[in-house]
Amino acid sequence: MRLRLPEERPTEPPTGYKIAHPMLSQDGTRAGFTGVSLGGALPYGVLADASCVYGLRHRAPSRRCDCGFHCVHDRSTAEGLLCTAEHRAAVLLEVTVLGRYLRFERGFRYARQRVRTATVGPCACGTVAAALADTGRGRPGWRELAPSCGGCLRGRTSVSLAAFARLAGEGLRVVAGRAVTVAPGDLGAVAELGVPELAAEAALLQARLDWFQAQLGRLGERGPGSGREG
């Protein structure tokens, strides 16, 4: 007697979250993603079907295999994966689970997916990302990309977030997440800043630099022997 798992018939496809590395084709005409675990060797598009990574001739996902796309139910769980050193440059994907799927405690393993939104984290310097730039790693025919600000591109192959979305197609949205900045001195503790907040902080820093320069100028005018003797 075979044990049959209960079947779900949702009124609309489930939503899940995962992390992946953005990829750009060698000729710069296509964009996609690679997984961070089993599926890391096979770049996939915004709308894609899973296949067995072991080359076995069964439909994914199979209960006797660990093939298929993977995602978790909760966004914060996926965001937590970005804290590990090897995944800091990955992006957060919001996906629609399509086709056959197996439900687990924390997520799904499934046959087909559509990536709806890719959220790009900050540049390695902490600034809000403006582009996705070549990391120096990749797969045959594909370059791996990572978030980068304009100041850190340094001539590397790169695409803007809008250009990546256009190359990926299928209505993909690519958005920049907030930067995490440690403010110097007494400007406060760790704060999550967007572009307007960063501009305000930069203006404040510039004002303080101007004040220090004015003070140094006054000391220079007084000279070393201008102090009053007691």
TrEMBL record:
This is Uncharacterized protein. Residues 1-21 are annotated as: Disordered. Residues 1-11 have a biased composition (Basic and acidic residues).
